[in-house]
């Protein structure tokens, strides 16, 4: 017993000694998860959604104006508003928060190729509920892409189509209004109680907002960027058969690269904790990796991943503005870009998630 | 010089075995209830369309809604064991139902489940109902206050193997030189109150690694020695409580803490059973009833002693079977399971399957989540036998859909203990043409690093 007390006091003494000498050093290996969540919420997620909401608002106004008065002028304005909002969407698609999930922000806003027959049926019947899953392929930005660029061969043809089809004018206005209402609801949720819930959600459970956010971030790059923007058109999932008509913004046909760069940049910025629309960086996944000393082959893992983002952006910059033209003219470059994005996906899914010890499911593990 | 034969004739107090029987039966009963309460029966065994089976046990499958029946049998037989009611039948039923459950899907493999299967198998042959049991109350022929000593020792040996082999497995360069995987796992807990801020520090990961290895290697010796036993037990409680806080390891800390009480003296076990007796008789009876001092004949044959000796010898050899395989054990996992290699690896993988029609060349890429649960996908992604079994399932699924002789290719990457991800499976090998066996899997790409040690 005496020996036991002695051991205990030695251990206690050691601990006390270490803690006093440690007072001045930085808290090695720890990362302030609350600060991380606060930065994500206040400097990235909410500003991104507010920017998206503002642009969805403009789109809604311009679409309503176009429905009222379909001229070349109003058409140009609604097209500009569409592209602005589409670009802003690339930033919010990363955050599948509970409200966005509930309202199907991602599926409802950007499922392509769009269902032209379905759209025409909706216009003909004038009877549709845009909140229903069956409508995902007939609404959102891809449907507007078709309605603003694809429904006539020339602008004049397009305008005269709307002239004679009041239901189509209404459909354009309804699609924009739906985009706006989803954006409004998500922003209202964040500005209501969700921000507090989010910031407090620093636990290790799978359902904790911090885990959900990281998982959604990786999923976005894999399933919403890599696969549809590059993989499917480049024929990677169809034995090399390319699909020029399955690119993002097919009917506009001059902005697929721009949208992809927007999405990749948003992903990289989120990884680095960069404040939305600003140059400042706050707490983020990269800094978190540094804090837990994630070093791979002599390099910080954060630097490894950033280099992979840069390589992917460089590969994408090699591409034509129109991915339809790119897959037809030189698909190798599309495949290269896909492979470069794939490298980021793998590094994030394996190396990053491993280093951050993020779990995917709750189950007993081994231990002794 | 004590011969093995004369050792088999040594006797000890039957209370130790009875104590273990009651404790083990009750813990198993509550573990099953907890498992069911978490909704895991449905989630792991009924909801998934596909199950990963053990080589040679492909016929062990969940039985749909009747799977609940297996769990009910398992829970009831655990109670039969605890009460010592028709003990032999109860222990056989428990072993069979528990093992059946574990064999249904290897996704949920845990070393401790294997441990429970082994202990329950051994218990079938032990006279654990000779004392403080309903059987002994009903049938005085099997009641006995003493039992062969080896029947208690065999349980100690099983526990000793778990600890000691877990300690041996930690003697590798990842654990000792790089403090992996604890360096990763501990940093995930820095938000914990009080101890959290320490867990991100490198030296703490090293300290935990070394303390863990030393603990595993030497704890049994502390428990065996009467003078160090209490101190050892305090360590057992502290160690397992800490692992319970840090890692999601369910009921096992409790199982190990309670099981290690078997090392205590028969007097301790008698006192513990006395307390139980006093509780179940609502305090009317304070002392255990006196039992007849005979050795119960059915169980105490020497043959069982020899049989258990062979069983233990197999247990001692089996964990070393990995030496028969080329390549790095942590990478290939050939000979990894059933070897008390616990908490040694932080390993994650990513597999993209590609199915090719042999006639038309048409290709399909697989979204694993269309066929597997999140947990199954995670486990499949870094274990070659899972990848192979799933590849065959994909082959069969696409063949049924009308594809001509589907070829299955896997592009996969694995990150092990904080190394940068590396290609894992040869992407040019048609896995549909490879077959599961105990032979080395040549289609696993070589590990680019070396891990030294056992």
Automatic annotation (TrEMBL), chain A:
The protein's matches in InterPro entries, at most eight in alphabetical order, are given as: Imelysin-like, Imelysin-like_IPPA, Imelysin_sf
Q: Per its UniProt entry, which superkingdom is the organism in?
A: Bacteria
Q: Does the keyword Signal apply?
A: yes
Transmembrane residues, as ranges?
none
The Gene Ontology CC terms held by the record are:
cell envelope
Where in the cell is the protein located? Cell envelope
Species of provenance: Flavobacterium akiainvivens
Q: Which residues form the Imelysin-like domain?
A: 45-343
N-terminal signal peptide: 1-21
State the protein's name.
Answer: Iron-regulated protein A
| UniProt keywords, alphabetically | Signal
Automatic annotation (TrEMBL), chain B:
Pfam families per record? HTTM, VKGC_lumenal_dom
Give the subcellular location.
Endomembrane system
Q: Where is the HTTM-like domain?
A: 9-268
Principal subcellular localisation of the protein:
membrane
| The keyword Zinc is assigned to this record | no
Q: Where are the transmembrane segments?
A: 14-37, 66-85, 92-109, 115-134, 146-166, 203-224, 245-264, 304-324
Topology in the lipid bilayer is annotated as: Multi-pass membrane protein
A GO MF annotation of the entry reads: vitamin binding
Which keywords does this Swiss-Prot/TrEMBL entry list?
Disulfide bond, Lyase, Membrane, Transmembrane, Transmembrane helix
Which GO terms of the cellular component aspect does the record hold?
endomembrane system
Q: Which domain of life is it from?
A: Bacteria
Q: What SMART domains does the annotation carry? A: HTTM (SM00752)
Name of the featured protein: Deoxyribonuclease HsdR
- Write down the species: Flavobacterium akiainvivens
């Amino acid at each position: 017993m005496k020996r036991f007390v002695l051991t205990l006091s030695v251990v206690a003494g050691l601990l006390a000694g270490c803690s006093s000498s440690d007072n001045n050093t930085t808290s090695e290996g720890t990362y302030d998860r609350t600060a991380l969540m606060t930065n994500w919420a206040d400097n990235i997620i909410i500003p991104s959604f507010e920017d998206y909401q503002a642009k969805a608002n403009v789109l809604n106004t311009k679409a309503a104006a176009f429905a009222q008065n379909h001229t070349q002028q109003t058409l140009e304005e609604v097209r500009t508003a569409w592209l602005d909002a589409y670009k802003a969407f690339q930033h919010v698609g990363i955050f599948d928060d509970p409200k966005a999930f509930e309202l199907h922000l991602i599926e409802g806003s950007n499922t392509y190729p769009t269902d032209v027959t379905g759209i025409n049926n909706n216009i003909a019947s004038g009877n549709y509920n845009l909140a229903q899953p069956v409508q995902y392929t007939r609404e959102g930005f891809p449907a507007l892409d078709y309605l603003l660029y694809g429904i006539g061969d020339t602008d004049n043809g397009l305008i005269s189509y709307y002239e004679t089809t009041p239901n189509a004018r209404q459909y354009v206005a309804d699609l924009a209004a739906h985009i706006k209402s989803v954006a409004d609801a998500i922003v209202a949720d964040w500005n209501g109680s969700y921000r507090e819930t989010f910031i407090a959600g620093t636990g290790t459970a799978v359902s904790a907002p911090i885990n959900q956010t990281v998982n959604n971030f990786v999923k976005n790059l894999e399933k919403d960027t890599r696969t549809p923007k590059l993989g499917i058109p480049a024929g990677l999932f169809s034995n090399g058969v390319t699909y020029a008509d399955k690119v993002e913004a097919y009917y506009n046909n001059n902005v697929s690269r721009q949208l992809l760069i927007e999405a990749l940049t948003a992903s990289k910025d989120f990884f680095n904790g960069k404040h939305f629309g600003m140059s400042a960086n706050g707490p983020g996944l990269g800094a978190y990796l540094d804090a837990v000393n994630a070093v791979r082959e002599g390099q910080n893992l954060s630097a490894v991943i950033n280099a992979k983002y840069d390589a992917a952006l460089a590969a994408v910059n090699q591409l034509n503005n129109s991915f339809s033209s790119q897959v037809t003219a030189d698909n190798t470059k599309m495949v290269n870009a896909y492979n470069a994005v794939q490298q980021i996906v793998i590094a994030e899914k394996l190396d990053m998630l491993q280093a951050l010890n993020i779990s995917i499911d709750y189950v007993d593990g081994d231990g002794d | 010089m004590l011969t093995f034969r004369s050792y088999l004739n040594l006797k000890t107090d039957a209370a130790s075995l009875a104590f273990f029987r009651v404790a083990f039966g009750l813990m198993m009963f509550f573990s099953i209830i907890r498992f069911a309460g978490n909704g895991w029966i449905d989630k792991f065994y009924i909801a998934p369309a596909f199950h990963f089976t053990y080589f040679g046990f492909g016929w062990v499958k969940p039985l749909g809604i009747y799977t609940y029946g297996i769990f009910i049998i398992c829970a009831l037989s655990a109670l039969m064991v605890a009460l010592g009611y028709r003990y032999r039948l109860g222990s056989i039923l428990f072993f069979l139902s528990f093992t059946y459950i574990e064999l249904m899907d290897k996704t949920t493999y845990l070393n401790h489940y294997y441990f429970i299967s082994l202990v329950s198998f051994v218990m079938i042959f032990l006279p654990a109902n000779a004392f403080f049991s309903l059987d002994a109350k009903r049938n005085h022929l099997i009641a006995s206050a003493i039992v062969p000593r080896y029947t208690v020792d065999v349980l100690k040996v099983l526990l000793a193997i778990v600890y000691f082999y877990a300690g041996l497995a930690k003697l590798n360069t990842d654990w000792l030189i790089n403090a992996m995987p604890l360096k990763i796992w501990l940093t995930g807990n820095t938000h914990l109150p009080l101890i959290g801020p320490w867990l991100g520090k490198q030296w703490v990961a090293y300290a935990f690694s070394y303390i863990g290895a030393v603990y595993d290697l030497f704890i049994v010796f502390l428990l065996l020695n009467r003078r160090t036993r209490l101190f050892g037990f305090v360590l057992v409680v502290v160690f397992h409580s800490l692992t319970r806080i840090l890692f999601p390891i369910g009921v096992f800390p409790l199982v190990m803490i309670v099981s290690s009480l078997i090392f205590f003296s028969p007097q301790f076990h008698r006192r513990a059973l006395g307390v139980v007796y006093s509780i179940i008789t609502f305090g009317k009876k304070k002392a255990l009833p006196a039992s007849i001092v005979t050795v119960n004949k059915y169980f105490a044959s020497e043959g069982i002693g020899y049989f258990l000796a062979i069983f233990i010898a197999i247990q001692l050899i089996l964990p070393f079977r990995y030496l028969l395989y080329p390549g790095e054990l942590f990478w290939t996992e050939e000979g990894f399971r059933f070897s008390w290699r616990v908490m040694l690896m932080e390993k994650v993988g990513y597999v993209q399957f590609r199915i090719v029609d042999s006639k038309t060349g048409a290709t399909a890429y697989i979204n694993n989540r269309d066929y597997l649960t999140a947990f199954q996908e995670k486990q499949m992604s870094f274990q070659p036998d899972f990848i192979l079994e799933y590849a065959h399932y994909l082959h069969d699924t696409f063949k049924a859909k009308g594809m001509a002789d589907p070829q299955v290719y896997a592009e996969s990457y694995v990150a092990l203990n904080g190394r940068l991800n590396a290609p894992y499976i040869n992407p040019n090998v048609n896995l549909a043409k490879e077959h599961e066996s105990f032979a080395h899997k040549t289609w696993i790409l070589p590990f680019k690093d070396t891990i030294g040690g056992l």
